[in-house]
Design a protein that fits this description.
single chain; 69 residues; alpha+beta; FAD/NAD(P)-binding domain; two-stranded parallel ribbon; 2 helices; binds flavin-adenine dinucleotide
């Protein structure tokens, strides 16, 4: 498989970059040692668009699912 873009890291920055790359019809590969630092956040609140608080691990999973979709 030949990729247009290879992103190192699957934290919020890498996942966000992949979303925009896919929107630009690029074939993207993400390589990562592990999930990003967001998983360490116990509680995220007052974040635009989120009515309730959420923990970092959940938010990371949502981002990954969004990118896969
Ligand atoms: C304890 C804690 C609590 C936090 N709480 C909040 C909060 O409440 N709200 C908030 O907005 N932010 C919070 N943050 C900050 C948030 O986690 C970071 O802003 C965010 O994770 C940065 O995203 P990033 O993608 O730039 O980097 P990271 O999340 O650090 O992701 C880096 C990625 O690169 C990968 N990587 C690194 N080196 C290599 C390598 N050599 N080869 C392959 N892959 C590699 C890592 O495995 C990882 O997947 C918190 C952070 C911590 C530590």
């Amino acid at each position: 498989m030949i990729y247009d873009l290879i992103i190192i890291g699957s934290g919020p920055a890498g996942i966000s970059a992949s979303l925009y790359a896919k929107r630009a019809n690029l074939n993207v590969l993400i390589i990562s040692k592990e999930e990003g630092n967001l998983k360490k956040a116990e509680k995220i609140e007052n974040y635009y668009g989120l009515e309730d608080s959420i923990n970092g691990k959940e938010l990371q999973k949502i981002g990954e699912k969004q990118a896969k979709n």
